[in-house]
Amino acid sequence: MATSSKITERIGKRLSRNGICSRREAERWISQGRISVDGIPITSPNILVNEKTIIFVDGKKINTPEKTRLWLYHKPRGIICTTNDPEKRPTVFERLPPELPRTILVGRLDLTSEGLLLLTNDGNLSRMLELPSTGCVRKYRVRVFGRPKTEQLNELKNGISISGVTYNPILAHIDSSRGRNTWITMSLVEGKNREIRRVMEHLGLKVTRLIRTGYGPFKLGTVVPDATLEINNRMLAKNIKQIKVEAERLRNKIPNQLSKKFLPSKSPKHADNRW
Q1: Residue 274: is its pLDDT beyond 80?
Q2: What is the pLDDT of residues 69-128, one digit of tens each?
Q3: How far, in Å, CA of 272 to CA of 26, rounded?
Q4: Of 144-148, 216-220, 225-229, 265-269, the least confident
Q5: Separation of alpha carbons 156 and 135, rounded Å
Q6: In the chain, which residues fall in CATH 3.30.2350.10?
Q7: Closest to 227 in 3D by CA, of 114, 82, 73
Q8: Is 231 helix (H, G, I), strand (E, B) or coil?
Q9: Boundaries of CATH 3.10.290.10 in the chain?
Q10: Longest C-alpha distance within the chain, in Å?
Q11: Whole-angstrom Cα distance, residue 266 to residue 253?
């Protein structure tokens, strides 16, 4: 098996980088005899490969990985984050431009949520972005029915447990109120299922709109609903370096995982009109 030239990596990492499967899935596929290297079925996930190694999965040759790419996508409400849906509801992947290569979705949103999704052709980048230990802050603008108290939101900085589920610290800041509706900016570093909706419900508030506006260094900005925007190579390299620096800082337990820098310096005027 070819493992001698240039940079080598484990077979699972290579398949993940190609967006074929996760490393754990690769281990399972290897045990099932579905993967061969240079024409020989492999039985160990510790096999090292390089760019010249010929890899087959289920008899199909895997191409040399392309350069890492990443797109921003503005998900509208009513679109689900899956490749197909038994209920025949529209999916994100059905809405993407046909010229996009095979991509992996980063940071799923539920059916009625909207805003920023990330798409990449690199499985390793996808995994890095989604791990809470990486420290990528997810930022949201949330409209709730009700009038939350500042004291209630401040308590979320310490984390909260609801029905046996523990949620990590959340920063929440009231932007504006109109009648019984309140806009809140929320920042968190994990994405448990329906986390924001459950936390707000626990506080006696009903979420009526939820928009993700940021994910780590990536911002929704002016991307319109149902549109995609590719991050250029230079900016993507800078962003990835920034993410790795943040992850290293967290590994060394340097404070400031969630700080006021993730909150607006002042509440925007007429916030309701912006969305």
Answers
A1: no
A2: 999 999 999 999 988 888 889 999 999 999 998 888 998 999 999 999 999 988 889 888
A3: 46
A4: 265-269
A5: 17
A6: 70-233
A7: 73
A8: coil
A9: 9-61
A10: 69
A11: 29
Kindly state the tokens that stand for 182.
């309140």
CATH superfamily of 70-233: Pseudouridine synthase (3.30.2350.10)
Helical residues (DSSP H) of 22-149, grouped into ranges? 23-31, 92-95, 123-130
Q: Is 110 a catalytic residue?
A: yes
CATH number belonging to the domain at 9-61, selected among 3.40.50.1100, 3.30.9.10, 3.10.290.10, 3.40.50.10490 = 3.10.290.10
| Residue in this structure with the two tokens 């949201």, named with its chain if needed | 140
Alpha carbon of 190 to those of 26, 99, 133, 186, 230: distances in Å? 25, 31, 9, 12, 24
Q: Are 224 and 78 in contact (CB under 8 A)?
A: no
State the catalytic residue, choosing from 58, 110, 122, 272: 110
Tokens of 140: 């949201």
Taking residues 223-243, what's their average pLDDT?
A: 94
- Give dist(CA 83, CA 179) in Å, integer: 40
- The predicted-structure confidence for 130-144, as pLDDT tens digits, reads as follows 888 888 899 999 999
DSSP at 157: G
Do β-strands 70-75 and 104-106 pair in parallel, antiparallel, or remain unpaired?
Answer: unpaired
